[in-house]
Design a protein that fits this description.
The chain has 383 residues and is an alpha/beta fold. A hairpin with a 7-residue loop joins strand 6 and strand 7. It is globular and about 75 Å long.
């Protein structure tokens, strides 16, 4: 069997192309890749569903039996995270802060139709940006500890979330007021909340369009390197194929500044799953409509972000993050992003260094720039 073939066929939202022979080496590679890319629950469920497509069948039955413990461990983790989600949502709601779960278990239910097929490293909850200060007071008052020692005012102007954990459950929680770096894309907190919808039980959730937008921005935030996010996007395009008006949605993508990111994502999907992917109406319309705009992804950029399952990109994290900025739609946005990274608003610098004096701003700016440059070159994490 072609290397990675079994793995790639199982994680896409289609049945295997045809019955084929496998051996224990194929299943060993399947386990290794699914654990490497945090896709084991999905692989386990899909393999169980389509076990009759593979021969000899006994190899598959033995594999499922041997790895059952890993699957149940992922379910236990998911249940623990869901309990924390409910606790946080209740805490915020009781204090007049509306919130909803995004990613994680919510994505598993929404686009995979199975709460046990996806595992997440954290809990992601969305609030309004205007509620961030009250949220921080509530969580810290309830014993939650921020993951980073950053002033909230600084974070609100620079990033889109804050991470917390509680010493008693050790579940990482990310509270979001946006989907990505504020100056990368044109999408404000209020715009997101205007597209929140409600289930029959009154539970808040993202609309299909906003969920896809969130995943695309999330993929850009991870420099197009996270296979799990790419799989989420593929399943969302399949799940919402007849739900979203893709022509109108393409126009929204253009307004936000996500054209290059979307084209890059579609190219990655097509390169990993060339068979049957063109059957997806959503991908066909996306490509056609976005190409009409005239915004192109340079060949060097798509080749740079070609997804190779045998590669480990962790060592080039900061370089990838810098190169990903050239996938922003406009050159002016790319240039501005570098300037904004090096030169935050004065209020942010004052908060960061706890120094409100104007006379020390130049020195503190120099300290800040030196920290960012060291961070980009992966030499230090200390500001």
């Amino acid at each position: 069997m072609k290397k990675n073939s079994l793995f790639l066929q199982l994680i896409r939202p289609f049945p295997p192309d045809s019955a084929f022979e496998i051996d224990k080496n194929d299943l060993g590679e399947l386990k290794s890749l699914s654990l490497k890319y945090n896709l084991f629950p999905l692989v386990y469920i899909r393999l169980h569903k389509y076990k009759d497509c593979f021969s000899p069948g006994q190899f598959v039955i033995d594999f499922l039996d041997e790895t059952k413990g890993l699957y149940w461990k992922s379910i236990a983790t998911s249940m623990k995270q869901e309990a924390v989600e409910k606790e946080i949502i209740c805490l915020l709601g009781n204090n007049a802060i509306p919130s909803l779960v995004i990613k994680g278990n919510e994505i598993a239910r929404e686009i995979y139709d199975d709460p046990n097929c996806r595992i997440s490293s954290d809990v992601d909850i969305l609030i309004r940006k205007a509620d961030a200060i009250n949220m921080d007071s509530l969580l810290t008052g309830a014993g939650y500890v921020p993951e980073e020692n950053m002033p909230l005012a600084y974070c609100l102007s620079r990033i889109h979330h804050l991470a917390y954990h509680h010493p008693e459950n050790n579940v990482l929680i990310e509270i979001h007021w946006g989907f990505g770096v504020p100056y990368f894309f044109k999408l404000e907190s209020d715009e997101i909340w205007n597209r929140i919808i409600y289930t029959d039980t009154g539970r808040r959730k993202l609309s299909p369009e906003v969920l896809v937008i969130m995943l695309l921005i999330h993929h850009h935030s991870h420099s197009f390197r996270e296979l799990k996010i790419l799989v989420d996007i593929l399943w969302a395009l399949h799940r919402y194929e007849d739900v979203i008006d893709w022509k109108a949605f393409s126009q929204k993508i253009q307004v936000i500044g996500l054209v290059k990111t979307t084209l890059m994502t579609i190219w990655q999907i097509q390169s990993l799953w060339p068979e049957r992917i063109d059957e997806l109406k959503s991908i066909q319309i996306f490509n056609d409509e976005l190409n009409k705009i005239g915004c192109r992804v340079p060949r060097y950029l798509s080749e740079y972000f070609r997804m190779d399952l045998d590669m480990d990109y962790a060592h080039q994290l900061y370089r990838d993050k810098l190169v990903a900025r050239f996938a922003l739609d406009k050159l002016s946005t790319t240039v501005f992003s570098f300037l904004k990274t090096l030169f935050p608003v004065p209020e942010a610098i004052k908060e960061l260094y706890q120094d409100s004096r104007n006379c020390t701003l130049p020195v503190n700016y120099l300290k800040f720039i030196a920290w960012r440059v060291r961070e980009w070159t992966n030499k230090t994490e200390v500001r």
